[in-house]
From TrEMBL:
One biological process term in Gene Ontology: stress response to copper ion
Descriptive protein name: Protein-arginine kinase activator protein McsA
Domain UVR: 128-163
Organism taxonomic ancestry: Bacteria, Bacillati, Bacillota, Clostridia, Eubacteriales
Gene Ontology molecular function, alphabetical: cadmium ion binding; cobalt ion binding; copper ion binding; kinase activity; zinc ion binding
Key words, A-Z: Kinase, Transferase
């Protein structure tokens, strides 16, 4: 089947896109898959290696590749990891850190895991995160000498601190 975007190359990937309750199938070739970065995918386990190779431009069949280093613990090379779609062990993260970091940033949209917020203490954690972001914004505004905007942000921080103080005394 031909790629539905370029209509020139053979499609190697099948995507199911659901919009407003309607699901449609899209078939993409390797080059069009590389260009598709803004879409969130649900993977079928059998196509993960091919998808990763297409998305990140890996070509594990290239004969002119230099000898790769292998993980000292599990023995997997980086090309094997891209074929399988999984790391072999925790040491792989350290061994292939320079190669993995840009890929993980591209896939996850950033380099920091923010995790999930528990239901019980969620409101408190959300307020703390909001307060931290506001303090960072405040510092940036002060650096830019945007003092009027900084005063507004400062007031927002105080409001959060006051509401947090009231919650603590209720407990």
């Amino acid at each position: 089947m031909l790629c539905q975007h370029c209509k020139q190359q053979e499609a190697i990937m099948q995507l199911f896109i659901t919009e407003n309750g309607n699901t449609r199938e899209v078939y993409l070739c390797e080059s069009c898959a590389k260009k598709t970065q803004e879409v969130s995918f649900v993977f079928h386990p059998a196509i993960v290696p091919e998808f990763l190779q297409a998305l990140f431009g890996f070509n594990s069949t290239a004969k002119d590749q230099p000898t790769e280093t292998a993980c000292p613990k599990c023995g997997l090379s980086f090309s094997q990891i891209t074929q399988v779609g999984k790391l072999g062990c925790s040491t792989c993260y350290e061994t292939f850190e320079t190669q993995l970091e840009p890929l993980l940033r591209r896939v996850h949209g950033g380099g920091q895991n923010v995790g999930k917020i528990p239901a019980r203490r969620g409101a408190t954690l959300i307020k703390r995160m909001e307060q931290r972001k506001l303090k960072e914004t405040l510092q940036a505004l002060i650096q830019q000498e945007a003092f009027e905007e900084a005063a507004v942000v400062r007031d927002q921080i105080r409001k959060i601190e006051q509401s947090a103080g009231g919650e603590k005394s209720d407990s």
